[in-house]
């Protein structure tokens, strides 16, 4: 009964619903205006990746003759058709919200203009800008018998042009240059800030590129291509070389989407469809500027701080205030970090101090996604140059970060680090740093484990948790973990951690079974899970089984959720909610009541087949009682959020939580709590024992 198709939600449609929730943030009238544009940009970026990977994968399956059903009972063909319907609706919503938001920002003297709306002086400026800045960069490309349709790179913006001379029609393509600003600031009047899109300037002056011809029609278009990497690792001798080769192939993948101006001439439209070999459902008519990812830079417009969120100042964790020696602080107690409310700086300093400390003998670390100018990578390189034994696993197959990771891997090797390029057939998604230090009492190991990447940039906008510990059992596990990654060692018997793909699925099922056992005995049983995605069919069935036996289960799933809550005699005891707000919810947290002996775990893994079967992942307990209580409070806060939380209904749709009563935005509460905790920690101990009132904070 639990395995019936109607008990599951399709992965792709669930993801599109998540992106609809992101789009909903762009329509939140309480949100600062430029932040609304940021969410439109995020929605567009998300859709790009969805088409390049998910839709492209389904199309490849169909072309290969695969039309099997998923857990929800949908064939590949049915999924593609439903995706098309949902995605078209989503895009229409984007431009509906864009129109309203651009109208609203005009109240703040910010205007997006059409060329004809500028005055004479501004048109003179535009004329100069085109001829002296744009014209030297652009290259019109003819399309005829001797000039085949040019290859156009993935996600590039272009103009398609129909030309006429002597009653003969010709076609041409003009790529919009990436090196120039997409949104051009035109000198304004009367204190106004006025802008125009680069492609509109090019369209206005395009006749200058075709002397002797007359432009009949011109339209903006953009192509999205299949960007999934396909690497047969069994026959690979050098993974780095193979990934580099595949990256070149990515740029030339089959077109899977055509975005074109809504008012484009039908003949021009048909010409592009035929040239790109794309089907009609994959054509998206855009009623506005194509590719809203350009708004991501625009929202940082100088002088408009009032139209953005007040800057977040991540706080120093209370346990680390006035603790310049990280190793001494970690020896005293485990330290829990909650980003971005608490600063990521201690993680960077952990590696920096280890690199400079003469007592440190070795540093070992996994890297999945890092920033473009990563201070952690620079510190690892410095450590090797200082004579430390440095081992780094750089995951070359981290999607869309492959090029960045290849660059860092080469630099680390040049600095003298031992670099491991992942494992054959598996992505290493686990997050761990091990520092081995010679101390008076002997060798001491210090460990950091986390739910998110070692990326100082995303740590400012992603919610994640990390744990520092000098616990000897964690230290022994960390040594064994890196030995498995770097050599031929079989996994040891772990003291604390659980590692996928060997053991994590069994551990999860055992933890759920323990709650089922308690429920059967008439004891309270409770599970709270916070993740980015829940997709694994076996785990979902296990949760259904727990629900049937009376285990109360609350799921906080940001994105994809294939589980269907609230079904009679299946999931009546399960709730699902998604929090979409200022920060991207990224932490993976797991709570089990355990018959009163409560257990909390953190992990790098979502409950998806790829995480449990095809990735190296970490799942580790939080032992400190104070940390357990703190995490429980955070989970409880998220379950009470009535500002940014959406609740899933049984049919798979989401509704905003009822806002009646006290308004609770968990992100704002957590920011405030971090500030207060830092202030309290700065107060001398004897003063902390005195009563404190709101005015004191």
From TrEMBL:
On modification after translation, the UniProt record reads: An intermediate of this reaction is the autophosphorylated ppk in which a phosphate is covalently linked to a histidine residue through a N-P bond.
User: Could you say which EC number(s) this protein's record lists?
Assistant: 2.7.4.1
Query: Active-site positions, per UniProt?
Result: 429 (phosphohistidine intermediate)
Catalysis performed (reactions): [phosphate](n) + ATP = [phosphate](n+1) + ADP
A GO molecular-function annotation: polyphosphate kinase activity
Q: Which CDD domains match?
A: PLDc_PaPPK1_C1_like, PLDc_PaPPK1_C2_like
List the GO terms this entry assigns under cellular component, sorted alphabetically: polyphosphate kinase complex
Task: List this protein's GO terms for biological process.
Answer: polyphosphate biosynthetic process
Q: Where does Mg(2+) bind?
A: 369, 399
Residue sites binding ATP per the record: 46, 462, 558, 586
Family stated for the protein in its record:
Belongs to the polyphosphate kinase 1 (PPK1) family.
> What is this protein's record name?
Polyphosphate kinase
Name of the gene encoding the protein in the UniProt record: ppk
